[in-house]
Amino acid sequence: MEYLDYYKILGINKSATQSEIKSAYRKLARKYHPDLNPNDKDAKKNFQLINEANEVLSDPDKRKKYDQYGKEWKHADEYASAGGTQQPSGSGRRTYTSTQFNGSFSDFFENLFGSSANYGSGKRVKFRGEDYTAELRLTLNDAYTTHRRTLTVNGKQIRITIPAGIENGQTIRIAGHGGPGINGGPDGDLYITFLIERHSKFRRLGNDLYMSVEIDLYKAVLGGEITIDTLSGRVKLKVKPETQNGTKVKLRNKGFPVYKKEGQFGDLYITYFVRIPTGLTEKQKSLFTELSKK
User: What per-residue confidence (pLDDT) applies to 202?
Assistant: First the structure.
């Protein structure tokens, strides 16, 4: 008789609790159910192995005999009545013996997952379709505005609306756009994770934006006006006289839109970097020399 390990079949340890056995069994039974794997020739065999392993390990009495007598666990009572004079072959090792699953797969899953289908009338158990996952790349400008996109998933076009303010790494669920249900069951869902590319000028932290702006030395010393580009358009700023290198200013409500809160925005933080002039003429150098003496 071939030796196989019931615990290994279910992917659990020998010390597994009944709850862990049940959880492992439900997961594997659904994964290898023949109705869900019509193109897998080994699905039925794997399903049968999983079913037998669970039948033994989920029954405390059978499990105890199995742990003690290995592949001869079915003869445990005979060994006990013989006063323990016989030693079962393979004692101390757990055994798997392949057997046929006598009930229908649909009947089995009705019991396992609690389906309300009436199998006496010939109906088959319904299964929810598989969930799909996808990634969608956006630019920061894309994520700034609410817009529509058309995706192709398994040959099917899906039109979705992407709300402004979507976060990098955020996942949204599109109900009913996953795999088709089985035997009339509901379709699965589509989960889309958004990946937002880094911007060359702006750095986003939550709903706030950060950027660096270069100003020349003369404007930093004397003050003046500059124009900058934001994601919502061009903005004029007044630079105060004697602005120091690294000075930060905040533009309220010029940051990123708050997700699904229309009209609400974060702030834009600007850091000034003073550009030191190069290629000075002799006269300009002389003027700077005079200034340095004061």
Answer: 97
